[in-house]
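Continuing the batch. This is chain 6 of the set; chains 1 through 5 are on the previous pages. Same settings as before, nothing changed between runs. Recording input and output for traceability.
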Amino acid sequence: MVKRLKNYIGGKWVDSTATEYVAVENPATCEILAETPESPRADVDSAVKAAKEAYYEWRRTPVLSRSQYMTRFKNLLEDRFEDLARIVVEENGKTKDEARGEVRRGIESVDYAISVPTVMRGYKVEDISSGIDETAERQPMGVFAAITPFNFPFMVPMWFLPTAITCGNTYIIKPSPQTPLSMELTYELLDELDLPEGVVNLVFGGKEASIAVMEHPDIIGVSFVGSTPVAKIVYETCAKHGKRVQAQGGAKNYIAVMPDANLEASVANIMGSAYGCAGQRCLAGSVVVAVGDVYEPLRDELVRRASGLRVGYGLEETSQMGTVISGAAKQRIEGMITQGVAEGAQPVLDGRGAKVDGFPEGTFVGPTILDGVTSDMTVAKDEIFGPVLAIMHVPDFDSAVEVINQSRYGNAASLFTSSGKHAREFKYRVNAGNIGINVGVAAATASFPFGGQKESFFGDLHGQGPDAIEFFTDRKILIERWL
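Output for chain 6:
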């Protein structure tokens, strides 16, 4: 029988009160891996109650002791590293190397949480007035929660949970119902830590559980990563209910290539950016802006390299690109390619209808390159979230900057050049939260915030780094005089 997942609430694995379950499918083999519950509001309420009851004891636990839990957690994750990577491949469709990279980046976030005792400090001024001292102290706030996406089912929850609980809060994760299994294993490891019951909780589910998280009066703040339309709803709903919120939305990331760029290195980086994780990441490069006479050699080399990518099942070591997440995603992506062609783009490499021997039902989309794209085309404006690269041609650097800044998104942008002048101008003028110079995937490490501007981010404080400390704590101001 197919396993039915249980929620983790109050330090125990408990059956959901759900009446409906959703199949979790391996997108390459179409094997049903498990069934995940559509947990109702009652399950979220139970998790919040457990987290709220645990908060008072947990916040009084010394911060160094809380940090030591994270040291043990990191060791457990390292011991199960390959198991976690395999689960990510099976539930998401990535290649092994991509899954290993995701798990490594998630563990880096646990590393950062270990440093909370040194980065959570407040500040003080003696004699702010005659005989009066003033202090700002950081304090945890209560119950926080995250609604996390399918594309990085292990890494994204690790952006939030480790730092939040080490700061002294209690936490609830509501993962994507498409990829719940990596969080199930993660919580099995958290259970081994013998944390006080209720400090960490896991509720599986879909829309109803997400709305319950956003509206629950005892949840202080919510972190979200997903598409822009949903990010807007999360931001508005949480704000309406008086919560802190950080909502990472979608993206349309542009990569400009100058004539003076190292062509070989540029293409290698663009390949990883556009086709890594089958294009299903918010930092994927999806539009190449070729400047001046680099256009033809760049296009030709991109087509040559992309044509040779080995598409296959992620657990096979020779695979260089895996599946997209589902049949519905495959249909949507191929539909957007068709729309782009109808609008005038030329499919110089067409990944529609891709087939992989031995996996006839797998949701594979081959690497695709659309040439002759203009800024008014849908494929230049809307997020595709698949292995599709559009190529635009502009005459000069200023035109490239103008094209990039026209986008309503502002997640990431990259420039390939050997000119320090152009690199500085790009950083200064381009409206995106993550800037890469001769880097195809401008991914912040765990000690820096993950940027985002315009319709790619809603909120004030980003995930990771010092922003996370700000988000998960409040400053209490103490003004004291002793007579």
